Amino acid sequence: MTARALVGAGLLPTWGIHHRNQYNAYCLADDIMEPYRPMVDFHVRSSFWPDPPEELSTEEKKVFWSMATWDCQTAVGVRPLQQALSETASSLQQCFMKKREKIVLPDVITSL
């Protein structure tokens, strides 16, 4: 989802800011997903704690497939996670173009 949002904003997901690895084709995607990681970790942990399965059932896999629609608090209100990622990617592109000074990040604590 993160790489898709970056490409949609006209950015290459391979050129990272903090992640650098010649064998990783998604360094920028790795950088941009970090602010969202606590939200995803929380949902995964609450879904599978305290007894994580050895194999995921079809129902459990649906949790991951529905991730794009999870509510995420942003500066302009609650958005689906996929849209919040797109807003972050677009704002990063605008920062690179010197059209804005700060990247738009989610309020992950409120999103939990």
Structure write-up:
With 112 residues, this protein is mostly helical. It has one domain (2-111). The chain is built from 6 helices and 2 strands; from the N terminus they run ααααββαα. Strands 1-2 form a two-stranded antiparallel sheet. The longest helix has 16 residues, at 81-96. The protein starts with a helix and ends with a helix. The model has no long low-confidence stretch (mean pLDDT 88).
Question: Structural class of the secondary structure composition?
Answer: mainly alpha
The helix/strand order is HHHHEEHH
Note the overall shape. globular
Distance between the termini: 19 Å
How would you summarize what this structure contains?
It contains six helices and two strands; from the N terminus they run ααααββαα. The chain has 112 residues and is mostly helical.
List keywords for this structure.
single chain; 112 residues; mainly alpha; two-stranded antiparallel sheet; 2 strands; 7% strand
Walk me through the topology.
Layout: H1 2-8, H2 27-33, H3 37-48, H4 58-65, E1 71-74, E2 77-80, H5 81-96, H6 108-111
Helix pairs in contact: 1-5
